[in-house]
Amino acid sequence: MSFMSSTPMSADAIVDRNQRVLVAQSREQSTVNDYMKSFLRIAERSIVGANGIILQAQTRKRDGTLDVEANNALEAWWAKWCRAEHCDVTGKRSFRRICKAIVGGAARDGEFMVREVRGRDAGPMRYALQVLDPQRCPVDYNVDRMPNGRFVRQGIEFNRAGRPLAYYFASDDPSVAGYSFGGRSLDRIPAEQIIHGFVEDVLGQRRGLPWAATALWRLGMLDGFEKAALKNARTAASLGGFIEWETGEGPDRDEELEDEELYFEPEEGLYQELPPGARVKNVPSQYPTGEFTPFHKAMLRGAGAGMGVSYVSFANDLEGVNFSSIRQGVVDERDHWMDLQEWLIEVLVDRVYRGALEPALLMGIVVGDGVRLGPENLERYQAVRWQPRRWPWVDPTKDIAAEISAKDNLLTSPSEIIQRRGGDPDTVWRQYAQDIAAMRAAGMPEEFIMAAVLGVAPASNPKAGMPKAPAGEGGETEEKETDDGEDE
């Protein structure tokens, strides 16, 4: 295959050659292509979701039990920090919206860059985030030889071992920039302040490539095919006909127009006049006919496969699907999204939590019911579990029955089932306890409480477990004597 490369390229060479072009094409498609826009929405909705990634604090006491007061204080503080006025240096976006913007940017551009801002500039909680455009970090800025073995590749400064030391960003103010490249002023930002995330496709990759990189060609071909088919269909539907005059008949043609080219503009119901000697010869075209739908589906299947999205979700095409086929596609797709959820937690969310927690403990603003958490137990308070969004069952009847069967056969636990549904087991247990306490306070018999909570059927006797009516209200109660003469 002569069109394929016969020489392997390094990760740096692939990025240097393709990154700017692919990002430009991806950004253009995200603004003009419906399917690309749909993919970005699906990614944001599937990775972040409507409720974001939820914190479940797991601080434990010395005896190993959960410290409920400390965990409640941490979760309350985190919910407060996630508001727009605290987590965003601009005060415009909540942490959930920042995560959605980051996921959308990573899918479109292949990477995201966020600056951690600390101190007074960060606002009242002394820690906030600044979302940066990764294209401001010039991918074509390279310096080979620097003191102590340092070097710059693709806008990032590394030490001898390849650890990032600093990022260079294009500056709008040349007077404060310390570096320049290609007529651009650059700011050097220490790597400790930058969160740089991308999905690594090639070992040794330093910058990300758009998630739809392999699908952009197909989307472009499909867009051109759709436009050509639309023009052909409009032309065929709009053309009314032509009028030809017999030889020597008809009006004289304007001499000024004789040397000009002849154009026909199709318009609904319009009959156009042909000049003397002209004949219309139609070029038979079957588009759009039977080839349009198969080609359309083939392009979308290939593009969806490259993006990690099932054809049903990507093309919004439910024609001819059944529970079995849609379930297989959805399960595979959800595994892909769950993998990216863990990527986002590892790269961004957990680091942000640890970065925001330290100044909050130092300022003493993590408070709960009678407790104020201090920095001496910072490591204990960093024990958390993140619960990303989960999805409802595709076939609820079969999936719920399978979960119950797995639990009854000790193949899974109730907590694991709750987590797969996107819930917090500790919260569910507390809700159960509150419901049971409320039922008991209302005077509901224990058998009916167990039936409502655990599904245990109450006794078959309708009077069993019911409170006895007092004498004189609804009839007398009979008393039986035992052989010992005691009332039973």
Walk me through the structure.
The structure is a single chain. Helix 2 packs across helix 5 and helix 6 runs antiparallel to helix 7. The chain has 488 residues and is α+β, with helices and mostly antiparallel strands. The longest helix is centred in the C-terminal third of the chain and has 41 residues, at 323-363. Strand 2 and strand 3 form a beta hairpin. The chain has 14 helices and twelve strands.
- Topology pattern, helix = H, strand = E: HHEHHHEEEEEEEEHEEHHHHEHHHH
**How much helical structure, as a percent, in the residues?**
40-55%
Mean pLDDT: 83
Task: Write down how many β-strands occur, each being a DSSP E stretch of 2 or more residues.
Answer: 12
Structural class: alpha+beta
What shape does the CA trace take?
A: globular
Indicate the multimeric state: single chain
Rg from alpha-carbon coordinates? 34 Å
Amino-to-carboxy terminus distance:
96 Å
The largest β sheet comes out as: 5 strands, antiparallel
What attributes does this structure have?
42% helix; 488 residues; 14 helices; alpha+beta
Overview in brief:
With 488 residues, the chain is of the alpha+beta class.
Write the layout of secondary structure elements.
Layout: H1 11-32, H2 34-47, E1 54-57, H3 68-81, H4 84-87, H5 95-109, E2 111-118, E3 127-132, E4 151-153, E5 156-158, E6 164-170, E7 179-181, E8 184-190, E9 194-198, H6 216-238, E10 239-243, E11 270-273, H7 292-307, H8 311-315, H9 323-363, H10 378-381, E12 384-387, H11 396-408, H12 414-420, H13 425-441, H14 446-454
Parallel strand pairs: 10-11
Antiparallel strand pairs: 1-12, 2-3, 2-9, 4-5, 5-6, 6-8, 7-8
